[in-house]
Amino acid sequence: TTTTTTTTKLNVGGKMFSFRLLPQRVETVRRRCLPTSPGSLQCPLYEEYDYRKGTNASSSRRTPSLYAGLKPLAALRPYQQKSLHRMFYQSRARSGIIVLPCGAGKSLTGVAAAMKVGQATLVLCTSNESAEQWRLEFLHWSTLSEGQVLKYNAAGRREFARGIAAAALTSRSASASAAVAGATSAGSTQTPALQNNASDACAIASNAGGGNGAAAAAAVAAGKGLVLVATYHMIASAAKKASEAARCAAAATAATPTIATTTAFDRGLSAEDVANAIPQHWRGRVQQSDSAPGVTPLDELVAATRWGLVILDEVHVVPANLFRTVLHHVKGHAKLGLTATLIREDAKIEDLMYLIGPKLYEADWVQLKNEGFLANVQCCEVRCDMSKEFYGEYLLASNREAPMLRGMLAAMNPYKFQTCQFLVQYHEQVTHDKILVYGDSLFVLREYAKRLRRPLICGSTSHAERQRILHAFRTSPEVNTIILSRVGDTSIDLPEANVMIQITGHGGSRRQEAQRLGRILRPKKNPGAVPAGEEGETGPRTFNAYFYTLVSRDTDEVLDAQKRRRYLVDNGYEYKVVANLMQLPGAASAQLDFQRKEERVNLLYRIFNETRVRATPTPSGGDKKRKAKKTTQQAADAASAPTPSAPAPEVVEVVDDDDDDEDVDGHEEDMEVLREMEEEQEEQMRPSKFARARAKTLEELTGAAGATYFEYDTNK
């Protein structure tokens, strides 16, 4: 393979044919060669890389080496060795996908593959937490230094740019000093020049507070390869910035031919130095444009490097349109996809065959469980009755708010909350377990977090707050339960967790069911806890992890639960249906919420309010502009219309040099539009006829005439 084209060899009739493909046509050729594609050539392609030959290639084409290996403590399990044997065949690295269950050591498999190739490696993840975990895994299992494992984020890009700039400045100073020393010592033996290597300069910058980014710059200057850990969104954003910057640079070059054509990374300068090289009349336009931000040296490194290995964590997300652009932006000799669930609810999972490669290895979940590499999980589907108030509203929901309202009523079923509350109390107080509570709706999760008084991690939670909660969950005996949204479905390493309670799910997604189960699949040290409802049983406790799915009886959740568990049933797991959990003596005597009817009615009102506000479409930017334009036109028509005669007002002459009458009129029109929008928003916050009718019916049922349980939040 080369940087700009792909060389393909074809053996036909004992003759070897070699030809090159344009980069934009590689995906098309791969798709046509698949056996399952329409009009297939019946010639599946395998992407292989001779990594030993790549290490010994000329300096202009050689991928930087890592000069590292695995530590002695990195003992690969038999299935990990088998998966790597499928990937490395006859001193070649074959691109493909390895499927291992959650908790089976996918990270160690990826680290071992990177050390086997021994060249610069790019790791792509789905979240910042996953990127940090991969960085720590490389430092834990390999002999790489801190400076050779860099996290691709804002701080890493900034520190790397500082290290490169320090190296460039020191190198220029060294050249000037050497020239002066050579001129003054002509005719005599020259003393050795100062060792002003770029690596020394970057080391100085690192010691001065540059951090891992400056140390990574030192490694690059010394000719060593890097392990760069990034998220798919970061690389996709970098690709967009690079294309916009190239467009602006091309426009600037066409207008001013004197601009240097070398890139920032080639010259060893930061983005500010490149901006200063642009003429003044172009500089302002480029810097003020949000569509053409500066490209940092680390961005240049990502795009220019031919990576020896590209590791794609959670590879099942790659067929999405956003992530496909990442594969076109980065260049890699070999690609390794890692996932626990090679399934998607759409038909795009087959695209991985030509985007990444074939499935190289897939482990057997039951076999790993029997061998002790995975926890022995008891899967339970708990059927929860619906309260009379909630089930009556569930059956009557038949308007445009029905889908959202029915889902909210089933999720916020008071008896389901009582079941979750009882399970949390039991596993915390009796068996002293670590519990994860999962859900999808933020309204439901916030209600559960407020009632249970447990921390919540969702999309709006900051990275620092997430790390603080996760660290307390791992180490503190006081934090035994955390509530998570979809952000915790993948790439969260919590070996201590052994109980998972699922409130709601994303429809019938099989992948989400398996991913959430994987959060508690890591092997446990404890022998196991007695599941709720089996306290009286004797004998050895075989289960040491428990997966509860709470389902509201006689609702759509029952059908979704049947679809979701198909993947786990196909992999050997059995579901135990529990229909009378809250009828146990322990549950009957527990102190649970929503025991009184007034509490349930109050919750029902809040659900009506939430579904009413969310079902009302929010005016888009275009609607607001059209409304503002219409209001302005109406005001102009009113001003131009003839008015009845009126007494002439007193004329007061005001002398003003600035002609700002138009600005004042425009300001008044803007204020009028804002007042109309505020009135419209207040109207949206009022309960609809549907909600008022339900409120009247419920007041009649409860006999609480004149009592109001509907809570309004006018700030929203």
What would you say this structure looks like, in words?
47% of the residues lie in helices and 13% in strands. It is built from 29 helices and 19 strands. β4 and β5 (92-94) form a beta hairpin. α6 (154-184) packs across α8 and α17 (388-396) runs antiparallel to α18 (402-411). The radius of gyration is 32 Å and the shape is globular.
Task: Please supply descriptive tags for the structure shown above.
single chain; 716 residues; alpha/beta; seven-stranded parallel sheet; 29 helices; 47% helix; 13% strand; disordered N terminus; disordered C terminus
Radius of gyration: 32 Å
Question: What is the approximate shape?
Answer: globular
The number of helical segments is 29
Strand order of the largest sheet: 8-9-7-10-11-6-12
Tell me about the biggest sheet?
A: 7 strands, parallel
Structural class: alpha/beta
Mean of residue pLDDT values? 74
Strand content: 5-15%
Unreliable runs, pLDDT <50, ≥5 residues? 1-5, 179-210, 257-292, 535-541, 642-671, 681-691, 701-716
Helix content: 40-55%
Distance between the termini: 57 Å
